[in-house]
Amino acid sequence: MVSVSKIKKVIVENPDFIDEIFTPLEQSYSLNKKRCYEHFAARFAAKEAFVKAIGTGIGKGIHLKSIEVSNDFITGKPHVSIYGQTKEFTKSLGVFSMDISLSHTDDLAIAQVVLLLE
Amino acid sequence: MEKEQVYEIVKEALVEAIGLDEDEISPDSTILGDLGAESLDLLDVLFRISRQISVKVTMDDITQMIQGDIPDEQFATADGLLSGIGIEQLKKSLPQIDVEKLREGFEAERVLSLFTVDNLTSLIEKQLSVLTV
Predict the structure, then answer these.
(1) Prediction pTM value
(2) How far is CA A57 from the centre of its chain?
(3) In DSSP terms, which residues pair with B30 in a beta bridge?
(4) What CATH number corresponds to the domain at position A6?
(5) Which domain holds residue A46?
(6) Is the Cβ–Cβ distance between A115 and A54 less than 8 Å?
(7) The Carrier domain covers which part of the protein (chain B) (predicted)?
(8) What is the ipTM, given to two decimal places?
């Protein structure tokens, strides 16, 4: 769960934060929304939920930018893609399916990640 | 840069990121425990410090400092508790901890909650000293 006002403060006060944490796709999706910070907060919550689900937390070579949240063009259903070391590590756990759900209000964003293992 | 100067930079970043008063922070304060920071706050702190000292400090640096080169499967038992090897590593990386207490059983995934302001200060001081050699 992530506070929308907190992520707004972090983004506004740290100019490098967006580029370090969010992929270009996530940036363009969120920045094109009227309430962009709600979308950034939801994406951050999803990344955090993902690293908890694989048991590493942030660090240990697992970078938040290597976890990308996108949405289906038509249905809006969120989808998670992973890259680089995160992909290798997740594969080594035997994960064959990844599902996420995102919700947000004015104040809070929450994400759940479900990984299915072989 | 002297350790005291680094500590002041760390303290300022904590004040700005978490919204604490300076007198609420001491070297012994655990960042995620005593100071009530969340992982987003800790990232915020690292971004602020990196900007101040022009050296990038990352979560990878912190986890590497704490766990060293010990693989996860040796650092923790199959039950997810700190192993003997893990505890020996923490004696070196987080020298302030009460090792005997950890031997009673401590979840390895909670290890970051033991990380203090002084530990962060030492990590940054070390990174700066490497750069100036």
Answers:
(1) 0.92
(2) 13
(3) B116
(4) 3.90.470.20
(5) 2-117
(6) yes
(7) 4-82
(8) 0.91
Nearest CA in chain A to B59: A59
Number of structural domains, chain A?
Answer: 1
Q: Are B128 and B55 in contact (CB under 8 A)?
A: yes
- Break chain B into its structural domains and give their ranges: 1-57, 59-113
Closest of B102, B98, B95 to residue B123, by C-alpha: B95
- Pick the catalytic residue: A9, A34, A39, A52? A52
pLDDT by residue (tens digit) across B86-102? 999 999 999 999 988 88
Annotated active-site residue A34? The verdict is no
Residue B87 is classified by DSSP as: H
Tally of residues, chain B: 133
Distance CA A97, CA A92 (A): 13
Q: Are A42 and A109 in contact (CB under 8 A)?
A: yes
Query: How would you classify the pairing of strands A2-3 and A67-71?
Result: unpaired
